[in-house]
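Dear U.,

Please find below the material for section 3 of the report. The protein was modelled together with flavin-adenine dinucleotide; I have listed the sequence and SMILES used, followed by the predicted complex structure.
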Amino acid sequence: MIYEDLQKFATVDQNVSFTTMTTLRIGGIARYVVYPENQYSLAGILDVAKANHLPVKVFGKGSNILCSDGVFEGIILRLDRHFNHYYFKDELLVAEAGCSIIALSHEAMKRSLSGLEFASGIPATVGGVTYMNAGAYKSSMHDVIHRVCVFIDGEIVWLNKEECKFEYRKSIFQQHPDWIILAVEMKLTKGDEQEIRELMENRRQRRYDSQPLDKPSAGSVFRNPEEIPAWKLIEGIGYRGKCIGDAKVSEKHVNFLINNGNAKAEDFLKLIEEIQKNVKEKYDVDLYLEVEKFNW
Ligand SMILES: Cc1cc2nc3c(=O)[nH]c(=O)nc-3n(C[C@H](O)[C@H](O)[C@H](O)COP(=O)(O)OP(=O)(O)OC[C@H]3O[C@@H](n4cnc5c(N)ncnc54)[C@H](O)[C@@H]3O)c2cc1C
């Protein structure tokens, strides 16, 4: 019955493995995965969820999520199939939440617009990078976002940048898991196409040289404490290359934990907790997760 009700509003897949929805390729099963076409279809899906007391979670590219091995008896909302339109107007870029930030950074470059170079290697959606205030090379989404269009209790609301309360890998959206980011307006600056291209190429090469891009991961697992980068602490406790099952601390970048084959979520979490415990004992520093645990 729930399946039929959801289908009135959107395409629905049932019993989808999280291994296909996350870059870590770890996790159990999602009972329903839906692809709303617009805000009306989204509203209908949320009504069905409410009527059936089902939890709802938006997934972007799943590049920052560690799912448990269990079943999620709820609805995963995916916006990357239909909410993927964007337009440029002078130096403004308005992009729907499901757009790929990598693709947009290239589109901006072709229009000689600077600001998204830092994001050209982040395998994520506009919704996900806004929620996380994703960043690299001393820049973050906070630097380019002008305002954000959000679905709140069935209403469409535009929040300006200040209202989004961006901080290091933080935003107001993390305090309101029921808010759904629909689109983001970004303000870029006029630049030189060749210079932007070179900077992006330089960033690409740096990522390639320093990150284990050939293995499934969720990027940096821990937030950097203010006093010292997380990688130095992990290195300091001797965990480079450490494995639990197929969960492994990357040899190339120790703040990347990788799935070395068929890693179980349990093993991944054990490795995380061991690192946190050992770092606390040796350095008296709390390492906090940047990666989000989901359905534990
Ligand atoms: C190889 C690799 C490199 C990476 N490099 C970086 C980096 O340089 N800098 C960095 O900051 N991160 C990096 N990451 C981590 C990750 O890409 C970011 O955290 C990104 O912001 C996650 O975006 P996503 O679309 O995949 O969101 P997901 O991982 O799918 O979701 C993340 C959170 O955002 C929420 N969310 C997603 N879309 C919406 C929406 N429309 N409305 C409301 N909530 C939403 C989800 O519910 C979830 O809570 C990297 C990851 C990988 C795998």
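For the text of the report, you could mention the following: The chain has eight helices and 19 strands.

Regards,
Y.
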